[in-house]
Fold Cell division protein DivIB.
Amino acid sequence: MSKKTQDNQRFSRRLSELTARGVESAEHIEQHAQQHISAEAVHLNKMRRIANRHRLLSIVLPFSLILLFALYIVSPLSEVKTVDIRGNAEISNAAVMAATGVRPGRYMYGLIDQQKKVEQHAKNVNHQIASVKIRLVGWRKLRVTIAENKILGLVTINGQQRYLLTNGSWAPVTGKVPNDVTYENFKGHVGELRQTARQLGKLPESIRESISAVKYSPTKINPQRLKLYMNDGNTVLVKRSSLADKMNYYPSIASQMGDNGVVDLQVGAYSYSYGDKSK
């Protein structure tokens, strides 16, 4: 066999080996690619399932919560069982519940959520109510805390007796009058009566309770003049618009008087006895 033939045979064998290696390498690459594609497909499927679960939860969870809340607010579990009323001295518990609508059996959600509307309605219905606060303090228990417009006494409005209140309004007489102060000479002077009441409402309770009667007694010099008849026997002359400020001096002045008399707070502050004819 010639050398040329031998070289051709070696070349053919080498070529066959390289071809076989190439085929094997291609098969390995293809197998690896298939494995990679398969792993990617598994990962994508997993991520798709997770995303689908998240989408499902994002729809189902809020809907479930809304459904549960809707079921709760119409169920007996959301009804008021106990009402604790505080801050009322002159208004009965029954009157507070009637004005606010807070009573056992009512649904709590509407009462708490619409508190401002409840407060405004209560103040419109009952002028003795100055403010209302509603708070959940226990399982199915509400606390209603009110502030009152105090009763200053009785006045006659359009021929009917009414409670005069510290905010200058009045309310129907519903029971015993806690303050028996009388108001004289205010007929036809509703504005003056309202201002007088608001001024009296600013006084400390101790001073307010020492007044037995209030008389509208204007003069040409002082068209706002009021006469206050005190429980201790004294008479106070005071300008209506400054009543709240000036009456704070009364206890100190009265304590220094030897005899009953007049305390004049119209301009400045001084006193004189009833028997002093020079005044």
Q: What stands out?
A: The first helix runs from residue 3 to 73. The chain is about 45% helix and 25% strand.
